[in-house]
Structures are given as C-alpha cells and as structure tokens.
Amino acid sequence: MRAQDLLEDIHLSCPDATTRRQSLTTEMKELEKKEQDCMQCPGHCCTYQNNSMLVDPFQALELWVYLERNGLLEKYLPILKKNIQEFRLDKEVFIGKGREFRRYYTCPFFKQTNCGCPIDPNYKPYGCLAFNPLEKGVTESGHCESNLDLLQQRDDKFGDIEQRVNQRIKDELGLYWDKKSIPVALIELSKKLSE
Ligand code: SF4
Ligand code: SF4
User: Fold this and answer.
1) pLDDT digits (tens, 9 = 90+) for 76-89
2) Does residue 117 line the site of ligand 2, with CB under 6 A?
3) For the residues 12-21, what does the mean pLDDT come to?
4) Each residue of 170-182: b (16+ CB within 10 Å) or e?
5) Mutational pocket test of ligand 2: of 62, 105, 109, the residue with most ligand atoms within 8 Å of the beta carbon
6) Residue 70's CB: how many other CB atoms inside 10 A?
7) pTM confidence score
8) pLDDT digits over 28-60, tens only?
9) How many CA atoms within 13 Å lie on the side-chain side of 52?
10) Relative to the CA of 44, which ligand 1 atom is closest?
11) Nearest alpha carbon, ligand 1 atom 5
12) DSSP conformational letter for 65
C-alpha cells in the first residue's frame, strides 16, 4: 500500500496533521512573538547530548508522507540508515515490563546550525514542538522546557483516536512497536511499505 493512500484514508475519519498539532504550533508562535525563540541557539535539543525523541507509527507515517511529497525520501533514506548505525538505534535493550532502553542520538534531519530543523512544524513530532525556550536569546542548554500541560491537553483531545489509528497502522503494515526513534520508525515504515 502507498503511504499517501493510507494516510489520506486515515484522515477521512481523524483530524489531519496540522489540526492535531495546532495547539503546539500556536504556542510556539506566541513564544516567538515574545522573542523566546531558537534564533541564537545552535540547536542543543536536536543533538545526541539531549535528544532521545520517539515517535509512534502515526507520527512516523505523517513524517514519511511529508518527505515523500517534498521529494526528500531519496536524500534522507541513506542518512537515516547511517544515523541508526552511528547511534546504535537498532540495538533493542529491554529494561523490564516491555520497556525499551531509550537511546540518545543527533536527529538525522538536524542541519547542525541555528534553526536547523528542515521539517515543516505541521509534520514534526509533538515532543519537538512542545520543547521551547523559557527566556529570550537562549544560546546554551538548560534554558528550555517541554510544555507537559499542553502535551497532555493535546493528548486528552486526540489520544483516543490516535490510539485507534496507531493500531490500524500497526495491523495494516505489520509493525510490532508502539514507539521508536525517528530514524528507526521511518526505516521500519520504509521496509513495510515496500513489501
Ligand atoms: S528549544 Fe532550546 S535548545 Fe532547542 S534549539 Fe531552541 S533554544 Fe536551542
Ligand atoms: S525533527 Fe527537527 S526539531 Fe525534532 S529533533 Fe529532529 S531536527 Fe530537531
């Protein structure tokens, strides 16, 4: 099945990517108006020192379709594979009760510069969108925070339907996982979509 067909079918009965991220993107814009932005920061939160972002199958599928629609898959597939090797992201280590050890990694999309995320906010992982500066002109780590209240409110609104969508994607593509690092989730999708 083509990823775009699956996503379009899912969005017939579930709010789209933009709508489900709206509270997070709106908050980010409000902070930017107050100059609580990332303009002067080299991007600490996207590097292996701080980043351990995980995505579920739904977020991964939306990101995949974003890359596909923008002709970026060919460029990024080898980068994703190299990133997995570099940070050993495919080495699963379970730490009890089915929980997997969470590895830190530099995001394969990060461009190693200020404002170095090339992904449209409407397709970014929720966790990336919710992590913002607490003050103006941040240049170092430790001055930013994840807005957990906003993440919870978003989850309260869309969590049930997203859970059903995640199950549908898992069933249709034969995925065994609930959350994976960004590169592993995308490569897993790549394998299943090409079967
Ligand atoms: S959220 Fe904070 S650490 Fe991340 S790029 Fe922005 S200012 Fe830097
Ligand atoms: S998706 Fe963008 S914001 Fe999120 S970790 Fe990667 S580069 Fe950073």
Assistant:
1) 999 999 999 999 99
2) yes
3) 97
4) beebebeeebbbb
5) 109
6) 13
7) 0.95
8) 999 999 999 999 999 999 999 999 999 999 999
9) 7
10) 3
11) 43
12) H
